[in-house]
Structure formats: structure tokens, C-alpha cells
Design a protein that fits this description.
The structure holds 2 protein chains of 2 kinds. By secondary structure, chain A is an all-alpha fold. Chain A contains 9 helices and no strands. Chain A is globular. Chain B is an all-alpha fold. Chain B has one domain. Chain B has 9 helices and no strands. Classes of the chains: A mainly alpha, B mainly alpha. At the A-B interface, helix 1, helix 2, helix 3, helix 6 and helix 7 of A face helix 1, helix 2, helix 5, helix 6 and helix 7 of B.
């Protein structure tokens, strides 16, 4: 059954591509010309977001290297405990809004250490799956916009993220 | 963002200076290196998706989808221009499908177009929060990881993930409604658009 489910997931993207090409051909679009024209836009797009990604990632690394991150994790552990969250996932919760690849590594650590089907492992998976790298989105989408007026939006996003983490762990206990 | 960046960076540098001055540069460089690697893989994913996106534009899929979502987008974002609505509609649908590679270019385009709208503050906050809390129908990468680690039931995280993102998206939208004023901040027209965007208008992700 699992293999079948995975197959369906894996089919989504090829199906999207297939339908897009077929539909464009039916609509008499010059598929090759049109496709390459679109690809052309990728380079300026990446160039325009690179500085912001670089800044956020350097920040994340320095923060980690300075040991401040560990300090913060220790500091937050009692709070996690009181809210009924497993303290083992504190690091994941902290790093997920900052770095996608960093949080993937932390998630892999957690599930191998505590087991994929343990309560902690499932919590970690749900928290990881249900959240986005908030800072990355802010940096990329609003690359050269004034960031100041987005402070409120950033605070809202992070607050909602935290609420959803609590909710995730609750759900994992019930389901 | 400026304050946050400065404070965290300053504190981290100060601590490193005291504890481990030699570790500072390697940390900065490895961060920058990560960014370079990420951008390279983003380039690959944008190249693939923006090609297909252009096909959607030219074959009228974009127009169809945005027509379908127009009422929702109009009510949620309070934007008026057709093109802005279209970019937002495509960003939302790509996010829903879990196609990050296509969602981001549309998101950037929408963020740029929103600058010219009347409710720019409100609409960009809404765009940010909805993207940051985005609905996740199928957490493909997590399920794949669980399969590879031999989980007894890899798909049992799908339901909680879906429920949690439904909750966070709703909460996010409600909070933006409540806390971000739908002000009449006068529209800053074309002039404030980035040079990057203007360059792209001719040949880019239109």
C-alpha cells in the first residue's frame, strides 16, 4: 500500500509537466520557443535573491557557531516542557524558520536517534512538514522591498508557526 | 529585519570573538557557501519551472486559474489590478500543489506588483503570512524520508500535517486581518519597482 501511495505522490510532477506540454501543443503554442523564453528569466531571478539568501545563511551559520543557538535551545527547553512539547525537538523548531537544509539535517538526526515511529519522531516529521522557512520566504519574496513594514507580518508568521508546532505535537498524541 | 539582523549578528560575532576567534571566518564562509549551493539548485529548479510557467502563460492556463480564484484573491488581498491577482492566484495554487519551484517566482512577481497597489502594506503582509504558513496537502519529502528509514506507516504524518497547516493558514489570515491596517498608503507606482523587475518585464516570467 505504501509503495502505491508513494507512486501516486511521485507521479504528480511528471503529470503536471505532461499536461502542460500537451495543453500548450493543443493551443498551438510554439512549445520550444515559449519554454526557452521562460527559462531565460531564471538567471536574473536567482541573481536578485542571492544577496538576501547569502546574508540570512551567513547569519544562521555564525549564530550556530557562536553557541548562542545551543544556549537558546537550553533556555527554551523548560518552556517546551510546560507546553507539552518533547524537548528533543527544540533545535528543529528553532532552526526550521531559518534554514531549510539545516532543518533537514536536524530532522534526520532526530528520527534516526529516536526512531521514525516514536512519538518524538512523528512530532518532528509533522513540525518539519507543516512549516516553511519563514526567513527565507521573507528574504526572497521581498528582496528589494522595504522590510520595515513587514516586521508585523514576520512577527505574525513566527507566532502562528509556534502555535502550529504546539498543535502538531497535540495532534501526534491523538492521532 | 535590519534590527534583527544587526543584533543577532553582533551578538554572535562578539561571542565568537571571545570564545573562538578562529572559528569566525570559516562560519561566515560556510554560510555563504551554503547560499551559493542553494542558489545553484534554485537556478536549476527555476529554470525547469519557469519554462513550464511560460507555457502556462502562453496557453491560457494562468488566465483560467486566476479567473477561478479571482473572488478569493480579491477579497483576501484587496488588490485591484488584474495582473497582480493573476500572480497571487498562481502563487497560491503552486503552493497548494507543493510545487515550490513554481511558487517562488510567482511570489516574487506578486510581491513586486503589489508595490503599485493601494493596499500595498496589507496585501504584502497577507502574501508573506500565507506563504509562510502555506497549506501543505502532501508533505512529499517527509513521507519519502520516512519510507527510506523503514517506517511502519510512513503516511500517518499526512493528516496531522494537513490539519496543522489548515489551522496555521487560517490563523495567519485572521491575524493579518486584525492587525495590519488596510490603509490608504498612496500607491507608489512604477518608479519604485526594482530595476530587476523592469528588465524582466519584456522577457521574464510574464
Amino acid at each position: 500500500m505504501n509503495a502505491a501511495v508513494m507512486r501516486i505522490f511521485a507521479s504528480i510532477i511528471p503529470v503536471i509537466f505532461l499536461l502542460s506540454f500537451a495543453f500548450a501543443a493543443v493551443k498551438k503554442v510554439k512549445v520550444y520557443d515559449s519554454f526557452t523564453e521562460g527559462v531565460k528569466g531564471a538567471i536574473p531571478l536567482v541573481c536578485s535573491i542571492f544577496p538576501y539568501i547569502a546574508a540570512v545563511m551567513m547569519l544562521a551559520k555564525v549564530f550556530e557557531a557562536s553557541g548562542l543557538e545551543d544556549r537558546l535551545v537550553t533556555l527554551l527547553s523548560p518552556l517546551f516542557h510546560r507546553l507539552g512539547l518533547p524537548t528533543e525537538i527544540a533545535e528543529l523548531v528553532l532552526i526550521k524558520p531559518l534554514s531549510g537544509s539545516g532543518s533537514t539535517a536536524v530532522l534526520a538526526d532526530i528520527v534516526t536517534q529516536y526512531g521514525v515511529d516514536s512519538y518524538i519522531g512523528r512530532c518532528a516529521c509533522v513540525v518539519y512538514g507543516a512549516s516553511e522557512t519563514v526567513f527565507y520566504i521573507g528574504a526572497v519574496y521581498f528582496a528589494d522591498r522595504k522590510k520595515k513594514r513587514l516586521t508585523a507580518a514576520l512577527v505574525i508568521s513566527l507566532f502562528v508557526y509556534f502555535l502550529s508546532v504546539v498543535f502538531c505535537c497535540l495532534l501526534c498524541r491523538v492521532i | 529585519m535590519n534590527t534583527l539582523f544587526s543584533v543577532v549578528f553582533f551578538l554572535s560575532c562578539a561571542v565568537l570573538l571571545v570564545l573562538d576567534p578562529e572559528g569566525f571566518l570559516p562560519a561566515v564562509l560556510s554560510g555563504a557557501g551554503n547560499a551559493a549551493t542553494l542558489c545553484l539548485s534554485l537556478l536549476a529548479s527555476y529554470a525547469a519551472w519557469m519554462g513550464v510557467m511560460r507555457l502556462w502563460e502562453d496557453s491560457g492556463v494562468t488566465r483560467g486559474v486566476s479567473k477561478l480564484l479571482r473572488p478569493v484573491v480579491g477579497r483576501l488581498f484587496k488588490v485591484e489590478q488584474e495582473e497582480t491577482k493573476r500572480a497571487i492566484a498562481m502563487n497560491l495554487s503552486a503552493n497548494l500543489l507543493g510545487v515550490g519551484g513554481a511558487a517562488t517566482p510567482y511570489g516574487i512577481k506578486a510581491a513586486n506588483l503589489i508595490e503599485g497597489e493601494k493596499n500595498a502594506d496589507y496585501a504584502s503582509s497577507m502574501l508573506f503570512v500565507l506563504s509562510a504558513t502555506s497549506l501543505q496537502l502532501i508533505p512529499t519529502s517527509v513521507v519519502a524520508m520516512r519510507v527510506s528509514l523503514g517506517s511502519a506507516c510512513p503516511s500517518d504524518v499526512i493528516l496531522p500535517t494537513l490539519l496543522a497547516t489548515v489551522l496555521s493558514t487560517l490563523l495567519g489570515a485572521v491575524f493579518v486581518r486584525l492587525f495590519i491596517p488596510k490603509g490608504e498608503k498612496s500607491a507608489k507606482k512604477q518608479a519604485s519597482r526594482s530595476p530587476f523587475y523592469q528588465k524582466k518585464q519584456g522577457a521574464g516570467i510574464e
